[in-house]
Amino acid sequence: MKIGELAAASATPIETIRYYEREQLLPAPARTQGNFRTYEAQHLDRLLFIRHCRGLDMSLDEVRQLLRVKDGPAEDCGDVNALIDAHIGHVSTRIRELRALEKSLRQLRRQCSGAQDTDHCGILVELAAAAQEGAPAERTRTHLR
Protein backbone atom coordinates (compact mmCIF):
# COMPACT_ATOMS: atom_id res chain seq x y z
CA MET A 1 0.00 0.00 0.00
CA LYS A 2 1.08 3.58 -0.52
CA ILE A 3 1.63 6.01 2.34
CA GLY A 4 -1.82 7.58 1.90
CA GLU A 5 -3.45 4.17 2.22
CA LEU A 6 -1.37 3.39 5.31
CA ALA A 7 -2.35 6.76 6.76
CA ALA A 8 -6.03 6.08 6.15
CA ALA A 9 -5.88 2.50 7.46
CA SER A 10 -4.18 3.60 10.68
CA ALA A 11 -5.82 7.03 11.12
CA THR A 12 -2.31 8.50 11.22
CA PRO A 13 -1.20 11.67 9.45
CA ILE A 14 1.34 11.11 6.69
CA GLU A 15 3.85 13.42 8.40
CA THR A 16 3.62 11.31 11.55
CA ILE A 17 4.36 8.16 9.56
CA ARG A 18 7.41 9.82 8.02
CA TYR A 19 8.47 11.01 11.47
CA TYR A 20 8.24 7.46 12.87
CA GLU A 21 10.37 6.30 9.94
CA ARG A 22 13.01 8.96 10.68
CA GLU A 23 12.94 7.94 14.34
CA GLN A 24 13.42 4.33 13.18
CA LEU A 25 10.27 3.16 14.93
CA LEU A 26 8.93 2.02 11.56
CA PRO A 27 11.27 0.16 9.21
CA ALA A 28 12.01 1.85 5.93
CA PRO A 29 9.51 0.66 3.32
CA ALA A 30 10.42 -0.73 -0.06
CA ARG A 31 10.34 1.70 -2.95
CA THR A 32 8.80 1.33 -6.37
CA GLN A 33 10.72 2.19 -9.51
CA GLY A 34 8.93 5.54 -9.37
CA ASN A 35 10.41 5.98 -5.85
CA PHE A 36 7.04 5.67 -4.07
CA ARG A 37 7.06 4.06 -0.65
CA THR A 38 5.25 0.72 -0.55
CA TYR A 39 4.09 -0.57 2.81
CA GLU A 40 3.16 -4.07 3.84
CA ALA A 41 0.74 -5.41 6.44
CA GLN A 42 3.63 -5.61 8.94
CA HIS A 43 4.05 -1.81 8.67
CA LEU A 44 0.38 -1.32 9.47
CA ASP A 45 0.55 -3.71 12.44
CA ARG A 46 3.64 -1.96 13.81
CA LEU A 47 2.13 1.48 13.26
CA LEU A 48 -1.06 0.46 15.07
CA PHE A 49 1.06 -0.86 17.95
CA ILE A 50 2.97 2.45 18.12
CA ARG A 51 -0.23 4.48 17.99
CA HIS A 52 -1.80 2.40 20.76
CA CYS A 53 1.26 2.89 22.97
CA ARG A 54 1.21 6.63 22.26
CA GLY A 55 -2.48 6.62 23.17
CA LEU A 56 -1.40 5.24 26.54
CA ASP A 57 0.79 8.35 26.85
CA MET A 58 4.03 6.44 26.40
CA SER A 59 7.05 8.41 25.27
CA LEU A 60 8.83 7.55 22.04
CA ASP A 61 11.71 6.11 24.08
CA GLU A 62 9.29 3.84 25.93
CA VAL A 63 7.74 2.73 22.64
CA ARG A 64 11.22 2.14 21.21
CA GLN A 65 12.08 -0.08 24.19
CA LEU A 66 8.87 -2.06 23.81
CA LEU A 67 9.49 -2.53 20.09
CA ARG A 68 13.02 -3.73 20.78
CA VAL A 69 11.69 -6.44 23.08
CA LYS A 70 8.80 -7.22 20.74
CA ASP A 71 11.24 -7.66 17.84
CA GLY A 72 13.17 -10.27 19.84
CA PRO A 73 10.46 -12.82 20.71
CA ALA A 74 12.84 -14.91 22.82
CA GLU A 75 13.53 -11.89 25.07
CA ASP A 76 12.53 -11.93 28.73
CA CYS A 77 9.52 -9.69 29.32
CA GLY A 78 10.82 -8.55 32.70
CA ASP A 79 12.02 -5.34 31.06
CA VAL A 80 8.50 -4.77 29.74
CA ASN A 81 7.07 -5.20 33.24
CA ALA A 82 9.61 -2.72 34.64
CA LEU A 83 8.85 -0.23 31.87
CA ILE A 84 5.10 -0.44 32.50
CA ASP A 85 5.61 -0.15 36.26
CA ALA A 86 7.69 3.00 35.70
CA HIS A 87 5.07 4.36 33.32
CA ILE A 88 2.34 3.78 35.90
CA GLY A 89 4.44 5.85 38.29
CA HIS A 90 4.73 8.65 35.69
CA VAL A 91 0.98 8.59 35.14
CA SER A 92 0.30 8.72 38.89
CA THR A 93 2.64 11.70 39.23
CA ARG A 94 0.94 13.45 36.32
CA ILE A 95 -2.48 12.82 37.87
CA ARG A 96 -1.30 14.44 41.11
CA GLU A 97 0.06 17.40 39.10
CA LEU A 98 -3.22 17.76 37.25
CA ARG A 99 -5.22 17.62 40.49
CA ALA A 100 -3.02 20.39 41.93
CA LEU A 101 -3.53 22.39 38.72
CA GLU A 102 -7.29 21.91 38.96
CA LYS A 103 -7.22 23.09 42.60
CA SER A 104 -5.24 26.20 41.61
CA LEU A 105 -7.64 26.97 38.77
CA ARG A 106 -10.66 26.55 41.05
CA GLN A 107 -9.10 28.92 43.58
CA LEU A 108 -8.41 31.37 40.78
CA ARG A 109 -11.98 31.07 39.55
CA ARG A 110 -13.29 31.99 42.99
CA GLN A 111 -11.52 35.36 42.64
CA CYS A 112 -14.24 36.61 40.31
CA SER A 113 -17.84 36.06 41.28
CA GLY A 114 -19.63 37.80 38.46
CA ALA A 115 -19.49 39.94 35.38
CA GLN A 116 -17.76 43.25 35.97
CA ASP A 117 -15.36 45.52 34.15
CA THR A 118 -12.00 43.92 33.43
CA ASP A 119 -10.12 46.37 35.67
CA HIS A 120 -11.90 44.78 38.61
CA CYS A 121 -11.91 41.17 37.43
CA GLY A 122 -10.46 39.15 40.28
CA ILE A 123 -9.04 36.53 37.94
CA LEU A 124 -7.19 39.05 35.76
CA VAL A 125 -5.95 40.95 38.83
CA GLU A 126 -4.68 37.70 40.40
CA LEU A 127 -3.02 36.54 37.17
CA ALA A 128 -1.32 39.92 36.71
CA ALA A 129 -0.08 39.91 40.31
CA ALA A 130 1.27 36.39 39.96
CA ALA A 131 2.99 37.35 36.69
CA GLN A 132 4.71 40.26 38.46
CA GLU A 133 6.01 37.89 41.13
CA GLY A 134 7.87 35.94 38.46
CA ALA A 135 7.51 32.81 36.44
CA PRO A 136 5.45 30.02 37.94
CA ALA A 137 7.42 27.46 39.85
CA GLU A 138 8.74 24.94 37.41
CA ARG A 139 7.39 21.50 37.90
CA THR A 140 9.81 18.65 38.00
CA ARG A 141 8.72 16.35 35.26
CA THR A 142 9.93 12.81 35.30
CA HIS A 143 8.18 11.79 32.14
CA LEU A 144 8.02 13.58 28.84
CA ARG A 145 5.60 12.53 26.20
Give a quick set of tags describing it.
mainly alpha; two-stranded antiparallel sheet; 145 residues
Describe how the helices and strands are arranged.
Layout: H1 3-10, H2 14-22, E1 30-31, E2 37-38, H3 41-55, H4 60-71, H5 78-109, H6 122-133
Antiparallel strand pairs: 1-2
Describe the fold and architecture.
The chain has 145 residues and is mainly α. It has two domains: 3-71, Multidrug-efflux Transporter Regulator, Chain: A, Domain 2 (Orthogonal Bundle), CATH 1.10.1660; 78-133. It is 61% helix and 3% strand. The chain has helices spanning 3-10, 14-22, 41-55, 60-71, 78-109, 122-133; strands at 30-31, 37-38. It has a two-stranded antiparallel ribbon. A hairpin with a 5-residue loop joins strand 1 and strand 2 (37-38).
